[in-house]
Write a structure and sequence with these properties.
293 residues; alpha/beta; 35% helix; 16% strand; globular
Length: 293
């Protein structure tokens, strides 16, 4: 599959010029060692009623999925806290996608973890609806759920693999783990332990990302954890970003559940061959026709 012509044809997506124009995430101490032993974590959460709106009501207006909303909030929060508007974020997922017709994933358990860089661009307007449409379109146009990125970079040899590997790397990782509520029955023989599981990595290990953002629904609340290295970033810097994220996420939920929300993105019409600019021109034309009538 890694050597297939179809896979090689998707390399153009991962080598787009815009991906090479991203700048590094600002650091408080660029000379600090980004190692596992110096990591700290900041956690924030939504109220139960806000979580219910996020899970059950926020997606109807723009026909979105969870990552669309969560990454749109991250895009706007980064724009609020930095002087930039374009970033690469490594999006991690379970990788359980129908890759081959003759493989039945229902007969397997666990994750086939997949990670690929998503280009996030904040709109000049900083409006929630526009940010949501941009993120949604970027995720929908990503070939084969991002699987070809790993196939091309790690399972190929030669110039193509080297070119992809030489592209700027994402400084941020993002992973929405889903709903943890109800995984274990309160009357069952197993329960989540309260004790610390201990270190998963050597404290001397170099970290791949500057920020690791992990989100999940636990105890009826949407929770998001920000893991950073205190030798690279100050607590106040990450706290500001975590607070901005929660503020922007609430803004998106409020917008998406309001009467004014709704609309289509170019990704809603994959057979039309139209981009967002064309969609905006079409919308203006229709508005002008309505006014003429």
């Amino acid at each position: 599959l890694a050597q297939a012509e179809e896979t090689h044809g998707e390399a153009a997506f991962w080598l787009e010029d815009a991906r090479r124009l991203v700048r590094r995430l600002p650091m408080d101490d660029p000379s600090g060692a980004n190692v596992c032993g110096a990591t700290r974590q900041i956690s924030r959460q939504l109220a139960p009623e806000e979580t219910t709106d996020l899970l059950e009501r926020a997606h109807a207006a723009y026909r979105t999925e969870m990552n669309d909303v969560l990454l749109a909030a991250l895009t706007l929060a980064l724009a609020d806290c930095t002087d930039d508007w374009r970033w690469l974020v490594d999006l991690e997922g379970h990788g359980r996608v129908p890759l081959f017709d003759d493989v039945d994933l229902s007969r397997t358990v666990g994750w086939f973890t997949n990670c690929f860089p998503v280009l996030l661009e904040a709109p000049e307007s900083r409006q929630p609806g526009e940010a949501l449409r941009r993120v949604k379109d970027e995720l929908r146009r990503t070939p084969r759920w991002g699987l070809s990125y790993g196939l091309l970079r790690y399972l190929n040899q030669g110039e193509l693999s080297a070119e992809i590997a030489s592209a700027p790397a994402a400084d941020i990782s993002f992973n929405y783990l889903g709903r943890f509520d109800g995984l274990l029955s309160p009357d069952g023989p197993f329960a989540a332990a309260n004790e610390d599981g201990g270190a998963a990595h050597s404290p001397l290990n170099a970290r791949r990302h500057l920020l690791e953002v992990n989100a999940a629904v636990r105890g009826g609340r949407f929770c998001v954890d920000w893991t950073y290295c205190e030798q690279v970033h100050h607590y106040a810097t990450v706290e500001r970003l975590a607070e901005a994220y929660l503020r922007r996420l609430r803004e998106l939920i409020s917008h998406c559940t309001s009467d004014d929300a709704g609309g289509h993105a170019a990704s809603d019409f994959p057979l039309a061959g139209i981009n967002n600019q064309g969609m905006e021109q079409l919308a203006r034309l229709l508005d002008e026709l309505d006014q003429d009538e």
